[in-house]
Amino acid sequence: MGEILPVAAIDAAHVEGALPRDERRGPVTRRRERSILASVALHGTLIVAVFIALFPVIWVLLSSLKPRTEIVRSNIELFNSPTLDNYRAVLTETNFPTWFLNSVIVAGFTMVIGITMSASAGYALARFNFAGKRGLMWVFLITQMFPVAILIVPIYTIMANLGLIDTKLSLIIAYCSTAVPFCAWMMKGYFETIPKELDEAAALDGLGPFATFYRVILPLAKPGIAVTAFYTFLTAWGEVAYAIAFIQTDNKLTLGAGLQQFVPQFNQRWELLTPAAILILIPAALVFFFAQRHLVAGLTAGGTKG
Amino acid sequence: MTATAPALADEKRPTPDKPRGRLRRTYDRSWFAWAMVIPTVVVLGVLVLFPLVQGVYQSFTNLNEANQSSEICTKTLGGGEECRPNPKQQKFVGLENYKRILTGETGKFWLQFTNTIVWTVSCVFFHYTIGLGLAVMLNRKFKGRGLYRVLLIVPWAVPAFVSAFAWRFLFNQNFGLINAVIRSVGLDPVEWFAHRWTALFTAIVTNIWLGVPFMMVAILGGLQSIDGDVYEAAEMDGASAWQRFRHITMPGLRPVSATVILLGTIWTFNMFPIIFFVTGGEPAGKSEILVTGAFRAAFEGLRNYSLAASYGVIILSLLIVFASVYRRVMKTQGEVF
């Protein structure tokens, strides 16, 4: 959406309150004096923010180590007879391992297919002028507006007609359709930051457009691909509505749909839910760990250009 | 995007001396481009546009679980099947569904509508302001900012339904940590899920926690694209921190802000799992937003597909109106996208 405008440069000229030359020293030294206090405030705020960001996760982790009776007690202690029994129970006595495997398969395929589709679409949008390009960009934005509620019934019908209800494939296809538009948009922005001269040089060396894309540009687009991987994986890993609607057999459920069996209206089994939640976080954390260093660079390009 | 239109026009105009070569090249390039775009277009066409058209059509019918098949087949004694047309087949009912929804005859549209507005506005407002604040802090150079950044993005990596369960656990009336803290200061524990606004409050807190990292990362990227020299020049001229923020940071962030606020609004408006799992609509459906209301209409009890489709069309229309108004406002302020 709109290139970054040199607005900042223009506005700087209008900054009010410019001080005369001899008064300049004052504020500068005062700033330095203040900076110890300022940095205490800075670190203080950030530590509070980090605490809030991590706390729910840590709390669930601590709770998952408590026996059932301690979890539901109203006197709360951080640690209380820690045990791994809950983990053993969730891994051996429930369908959780099956759901977990299903989710890994669904999220893995969504990620691979999603990256392939959005990278190639993003490249085409970034490099070529072709009929229908502008329209396609708008379609990408508008697809973000479609509520699950309006799509879920017709998609359900289509899947039923294709005989895909109750299969993992139905979920993979549905998740790709949700994640790809945003990712293609992001990838387009990222490809635009890679100089066009590289493509031209590759073409002069006799590479066709596909080879140029695959062998020259794609290796340079790692940050963009990392963000796409992160986004597509999380979309599939955490989706619930389609999973509940499409999957009917218990051992084909994915995590999002399966987990709610632990906390029905009555007799909620928090001692199963808390270890399950921690186990679910592990793959997400792995993907996050590999993607995080690229997140800012990858997302920026996509977010500021369109 | 802005520069493509004239270029496109140029390519299409055949030049008198080499018309064929020119056209040919355009065609070739289009061909490659389309080959790369086609998988996405097909998937979107089949799974977004076609269902959309079908959904809009369904919203004018009375399709539900009971009348969806055009034939009713019954097993005969011999083991064969006998089929005859379904007497209660779905039929076109015009605006009936919309009338029922908007007049409140079925469901609680206006309650859910108010909830959705409160939910979206407060979530996006806090996402943006908190995200902006954190991003501005992280954009300074100091020791350990890489670590802060990684730790602050963590909520983004937590799947929405897991954070929903985690917060529901924290807000639990009897053994939740938040009530324990409230009790320890000597106040009465709050029955979070027994009142409409407290229930909605828990969901909003959860979603703010979940959504801040995306905003923070996007804004941080935007901040890094602002030229550092401009700040230095302004500081030389004696601009205060607030003036620098007001006159350099904010205008410099406009393109990013415009995009993330639009996307954030759309995403929050349609955010399904948080409400569904944190409040579950408690008490008695009073904390439901439009999306979860539509889902319940479609997949709980007697599945009323047409009603859900009408809900969906209403949601979509609201968002389209919002997006075009938003775009127009941005345009008047000089931002075109």
UniProtKB/TrEMBL annotation, chain A:
Question: Where does the UniProt annotation locate this protein?
Answer: Cell membrane
The way this protein sits in the membrane is described as: Multi-pass membrane protein
Outline the extent of the ABC transmembrane type-1 domain: 100-291
Q: Which domain of life is it from?
A: Bacteria
Q: Which SUPFAM superfamilies match?
A: MetI-like (SSF161098)
Query: Mind listing the UniProt keywords for this protein, alphabetically?
Result: Cell membrane, Membrane, Sugar transport, Transmembrane, Transmembrane helix, Transport
Q: InterPro entries this protein is in?
A: BP-dep_ABC_trans_perm, MetI-like, MetI-like_sf
Membrane spanning stretches = 40-62, 99-126, 138-157, 169-187, 225-247, 272-291
- Pfam families attached to this UniProt entry: BPD_transp_1
Record-stated family: Belongs to the binding-protein-dependent transport system permease family. MalFG subfamily.
Q: What is this protein called?
A: Carbohydrate ABC transporter permease
Q: To which species is this protein native?
A: Nocardioides pini
State the taxonomy lineage.
Bacteria, Bacillati, Actinomycetota, Actinomycetes, Propionibacteriales
UniProtKB/TrEMBL annotation, chain B:
Question: How would you describe this protein's topology in the membrane?
Answer: Multi-pass membrane protein
The UniProt entry, under InterPro entries, shows: MetI-like, MetI-like_sf, UgpAE/MalFG_permease
Which Pfam family name is an example for this entry? BPD_transp_1
Where does the source fall among the domains of life?
A: Bacteria
**Which residue ranges run through the membrane?**
31-53, 117-138, 150-170, 197-220, 256-278, 305-326
Sorted keywords for this record are:
Cell membrane, Membrane, Transmembrane, Transmembrane helix, Transport
State where composition is biased (Basic and acidic residues).
9-21
Domain ABC transmembrane type-1 span(s) in chain numbering: 113-326
**Residues annotated as region Disordered?**
1-21
Subcellular location per the Swiss-Prot or TrEMBL entry: Cell membrane
Q: Which Gene3D superfamilies match?
A: MetI-like (1.10.3720.10)
CDD domains this protein is in?
Answer: TM_PBP2 (cd06261)
Protein family according to the UniProt entry: Belongs to the binding-protein-dependent transport system permease family.
- Protein name per Swiss-Prot or TrEMBL: Sugar ABC transporter permease
